[in-house]
Structures are given as structure tokens and as C-alpha cells.
Amino acid sequence: MIARAASTERVREGTEDRIMKKFALITTAVLISAAAIGAVKKVATSRPASGATSRPSLAGLMAQAAKYESVGQYAQAAKSARAAIALSSKADPADVARIRKQLRRLARRLSSARRLEALTDLLARRPDDLAIREKIIRLCVLELDSPVRAAKFINEDTDQVFQTYVPMAARKLDQLAEAPCRELAEWYLSHLKKPSRFGRIAMLRRAAAYYGRFLQLHTSVDAEQRRAAQQYELVAGQLADLGESLAKAPS
């Protein structure tokens, strides 16, 4: 009977997972489509100021999308990116490619955010369900690049690894000493096979930032410094292979 109950529970959890993933994908498609329609309507009915060109408006919309994304407002960010695409017919092809890549990233993050919302609602109904709690933590860390949000779900029952590294990653970079920086870099690199492409990019950038901070603090020329420098170069190479740069470090 115990085995049968455990099997039933696994089937139930698997069904819930499939339902939540399907819900997230449908919601993402609806929201992105709505954002596109709204953006096109706004562009079609707006009148540029005398002498204005599309370049400043395009740059402004791209900056607006980045700002919304930085605070987790992915639907608004997608709306701004769609508006930028609507204005980009005469833009530099590199700008258009960058906007489209940004939009793909936003679609993925919006899907993850909707899944997070569904899991959070489920946890509110089942607060003692450790499996759901740890799914939320992994989603926040691996896909949404938000250890600060993940830290809110840590408790005494969660995996000891999460209890150790998630609160550490939630701290400001300039508050971390040598050892935590090296440990966090290695921890993030150990998860590279699990997230999406955009999740991997975010984790590689975090690892690079932590190694960079370690090298800034560790001034001794020794084996630790050489290893950290080698790892930093390897991470930079992996990002280059993905068509990305080191870019912004975690705050």
C-alpha cells in the first residue's frame, strides 16, 4: 500500500508539472501576442516630432525594454521590444538582430515567471511540500537569475546546498570575500547543463563576475590565483561560443 501511495503521488506531481508548464506556455503566447498588437497600434497612431528620426526612438525603446526586464516586468519589456521591431525597418541589421534576441530571452523569462507564479500559488496551498519549494528555488536561480527571490523560499528543510549558496549569491558582489566568490563561481558552473540557453548565459556571467572579484581580492601569485584566472578565461570563451560577452556583473 505504501508503494502504491508513493506511485500515485509521483503521478499526481508529474501531472501538476505538465499542467503548469502548459499553462505557462499558453499564457506567454497570449501575452506576447497582445504586446505585439498593442505596440504596432501605438506606433501606427503616433506622430514623430518634426525632424525626428527612427534611431532615437528605437534606442529609447530598447533601453525601456532593458529597464523593464531588469525589474522583472517581462510582459512590459516584450511590449517595448515589439514596438522597437515595428520601428526597425530602416534600422541597422545588427540592432534588429539584437532586438529579436532580446525578445526571445523575454519570452523564455516570461514563461518562467508564469511558471513561478503557478508554483508559488501551489506552495501557498501546500506549504510543507518540499519538492515544490525546491522547484521554485531552482527556477529562480537557474532561469530567472534571481537568487534574491530564491532566498525568500529557503527554510530549514531545504537542501543544505541551497541553504549555503543561495543566501550567499543574494548578497551584493562587493560584499563578498575571496572564498565565497570562488565557491559561488564553482557552484554556478556546476549547474550549466540544467537551464535553458539564456539561463546558461546568466550563470556564466555570474561565474565570471565572481572569479573577477576573487582575482581582485586575491593578490598573491599562487596556484589559487592561476586556477581562478584560467577558469575566468574558460568562462569568457564559453560565452563567446554562445555569441555573448561578459557584459554586466551581478549587483
Write the layout of secondary structure elements.
Layout (H helix, E strand, L loop, with lengths): L1 H44 L8 H17 L3 H13 L6 H33 L4 H13 L4 H5 L8 H10 L8 H12 L7 H21 L5 H19 L10
A few lines on this structure:
With 251 residues, the protein is mainly α.
What quaternary form is this?
Answer: single chain
**Poorly predicted sequence stretches spanning 5 or more consecutive residues:** 1-13, 22-56
Radius of gyration: 21 Å
| Tally of DSSP helical segments | 10
Report the structural category. Answer: mainly alpha
Largest sheet: none
Helix percent reads over 70%
Number of domain units: 3
Beta-strand percentage? under 5%
- Average pLDDT confidence is 78
Report the principal-axis shape: flat
Number of strands: 0
The ordered H/E elements are HHHHHHHHHH
Distance between the termini: 51 Å
Give a written overview of the molecule:
By secondary structure, the protein is mostly helical. The chain has 3 domains: 13-45 and 54-117; 126-170, no CATH class; 172-251. Helices cover 75% and strands 0% of the residues. The chain is built from 10 helices and no strands. It has helices at 2-45, 54-70, 74-86, 93-125, 130-142, 147-151, 160-169, 178-189, 197-217, 223-241. Helix 1 (2-45) runs parallel beside helix 3 (74-86) and helix 8 runs antiparallel to helix 9. It is flat, with a radius of gyration of 21 Å. The protein starts with a helix and ends in a 10-residue tail after the last helix. Mean pLDDT is 78; it is low at 1-13 and 22-56.
